[in-house]
Amino acid sequence: MSEQHATPTPDQHGYPPPAAATDQIDLTDAPAPAKPFEGVPDSDYVRDVISALLLLVSLQLVWNGEGNTASGIAWVLAPTLLSVVSLALPYLARFGAFPTSWTVHTTRRARVLLNLPYVLAVVAQVVIDASVRSRLEAVGAAAALGLAGALLAATPRASELGPVEQDRAVTSTWSRVAALLAALSGVGLLAWLVLYVVEMTSRTTSGSRTDVILALVATVLVALALLIPVLAAALGRTVAWSRALVALAVAHLLVLFVTDGDQVRSVVETVHPIRDVAFLPSGFGLFLLPAVAVIAASPAVRRRTSQNPAVAWFDSVRVTLLLQALLAVVLAVASVLQIWVGNGRVADLVPAAVVLLLIAGLALGALSTVGRKSPADARGTVLVLMGASLVTGCVLLGMDGGPLSAFLPFLVIRLAVALVLPAAVFLALTVPDPVREYLAANPRTPRPGDGAAAYRWSPRPERVHASRPAPAPAQQSYPTAVSGHEAAYPPAPQAAQPPAQSSPTAPGLAPDASGYGMVPTDGASPVQPAGVASEQETTVIPAATDTDIGAPEAHEIVSPTEKVALSDPIDQLGREEGGFTWAQAADPTTPAATLAQIVQDAPSLRAAVASNPTTYPALLEWLAQLGDPEVDAALAARVN
Fold it and tell me: If we measure between CA atoms, which residue out of 349, 385, 387 comes closest to residue 368?
């Protein structure tokens, strides 16, 4: 039978079958078509969306001090559109729009080339501002947003990075870019401060010299408070500062977007100090803060650290809390100084400073909790304190007065400490998958009694008034193990006792005259029956494991009579119950299995077991849950 090729049919889309095919085509071994976006993490899509938003929104914001928007300047509009086009390169490559010679390395180079014109446009605006003194050119909010968006579009995505050992050059390159931008921001700010001092000194009289000094102090404090996270994120080797800087950059961008058009001077930065403003209007170099943030948080730079993901998030919480406290204190000091410098109203500035110090206290309290407790134990307290910080921050945002509602750096710090930084702590402790997995694997330390008494109603225990006589003890009272005061212990139920057995050779014991021990009497006295157990316990005692028991003799069964014979008849306290003695319960050589039997059969000897240095941990935890004051005191003495 000869082979016959199948005739193309409509269901085959007009394509003939391959050579040597028959009417029956086996498709069971055919490979599944590859998905074009397989292996792309969600973070890549998020970065593309944020970059596009920053670039497009910047077109409607002020570009220079004259109030011109970026969309009305041709040499700014064209680079913005090129940066937006660069975001489509990886998607076009996955759809096969480029030739076969196009690789991931080509995409990364094309990203940089298409976003380079926007960087040059910003540099040109800085040069114009420095060279022109006849009018206020400055660098506006559009440059800050657009530069951050262009650099975010230029950085390679996580799906475009190779193994660290083979693709290390991209990490070092972008780390240098972040360090360079941070250095330019610092140099620009310091240079501006020098010009600021010269300008203020040239028009200062002897009577206003104090005001100039106070204004300079506040200016330097605010500038350094914003510059510290920039340098730490760019030069540090952890991701904690980069995440804190991202939160601060979010506050910066929100302020630029909201205040645009209200006061042009509040959203621009210029090399030349403004003559009619005694305080720092915005400085020069802080517009680079969002740009440093997006590069320091890029996948290429963040992978230079090998921290555990969960540990990195907990470190980010610590750094964010520290930054919140620092910024709140700095803004509180600047608000108080504004009373003398700008003749601000005390009724406005002093309450604002008090609220800022309260926010700083909440942040420091949360930071102290994180430092003292494990992440699982500290998480609840930190979330509660940050909730209080958010409520207090809303009060701060409703206040008015002085620089709190006039100048850009103060607005950024105000929004950051009030809302953005506490929200960042909330997100870091609740959203990331590594954090939730760590908390699920490492739950918080259980409290004795599960802590139900703190939030669940239960009958209040009866208290014996001092005027009411205490009931007579049912049997001989013995001194306690810790305080030495006498405490009565009820006898075991008589119905459960076997026939009494006495030892004629066992010496009788009587209280010592000093009240702190028992001494043998001359005559013989009956000994408590051997093998008599105390009242049945309702709680299961943790069993000793092989590690807890240790020595082979711990498995040997010793009769209660032998235990009585081995005990010291002149024990310090002379207490014995259930065939066991205090000395035996406190003896480090007593096997772990015997200690478990002692706490079950002799409740009056539990304090001795609690003070025994060889008692295994499970039994100590069980004793701690009993709520016995004598046992708790012995455990406390053991810890101390």
Answer: 385
pLDDT at position 602 is 83
- Residue 412, CA distances (Å) to 267, 343, 548 in order: 11, 22, 59
- Using an 8 Å Cβ cutoff, are 232 and 243 in contact? no
Mean of the pLDDT values across residues 6-18? 47
Cα distance between residue 415 and residue 449, in whole Å: 43
Residue type at 76 in one-letter notation: V
Long-range contacts, stretch 430-437, CB < 8 angstroms, 24+ apart:
430/383, 432/309, 432/310, 432/313, 434/308, 434/309, 434/310, 434/313, 435/310, 435/313, 435/314, 437/310
Domain parsing of the chain, residue ranges: 41-160, 491-639
Whether the model pTM is above 0.85: no
Check: CB of residue 233 under 8 Å from CB of residue 182.
yes
pLDDT band at 600 (very low <50, low <70, confident <90, very high): confident
Q: Give, as one character, the DSSP assignment of residue 589.
A: T
Query: Over the stretch 286-304, which tens digit does the pLDDT of each residue have?
Result: 899 999 999 999 999 998 8
Cα 589–Cα 592–Cα 596 angle in degrees, nearest 5: 125
- At 322, the pLDDT band (50, 70, 90 cuts) reads very high
Facing residues of 479 across strands? 486
Q: List the one residue out of 200, 193, 247 whose CA is nearest residue 221.
A: 193
